[in-house]
Specification:
3 strands; rod-shaped
């Protein structure tokens, strides 16, 4: 270190420390963005499910139940549209779920009406 200058080694050590700092922050930003993207994807899936319905098949003497797509009492990936849900409720062996009340989404004019 002639004349009090910083050596090349010290400069490069400082650069490495700064780059590690930048890398940690960039990696955290990527994790934050991935988390936000996943949350948005889940939100869109829930919103889509709320526009659909699903039928829980009857078991033994129980009545089959119609659920909103987002109802957690019955899990299914087989969704039906509004028209099929209206027709299902008209069937004598299918009743609406008491918890999610799917019939409230079926009253009144349908989308685009």
């Amino acid at each position: 270190m002639p004349g009090g200058d910083i050596s090349d080694l010290d400069k490069n050590r400082a650069l490495v420390a700064w780059l590690r700092y930048q890398l940690r922050h960039a990696e955290q930003r990527v994790r934050d963005l991935e988390h936000a993207e996943q949350a948005e994807h889940r939100r869109k899936q829930r919103a889509r499910a709320e526009q659909l319905w699903k039928i829980q098949p009857r078991r033994s003497a129980e009545t089959a139940l119609l659920h909103r797509g987002g109802c957690g009492l019955y899990t299914s990936r087989a969704f039906i549209d509004r028209e099929a849900a209206v027709n299902a409720l008209a069937e004598p062996g299918i009743a609406p779920c008491d918890v999610c009340a799917p019939e409230t989404g079926l009253t009144g004019p349908g989308p685009g009406a």
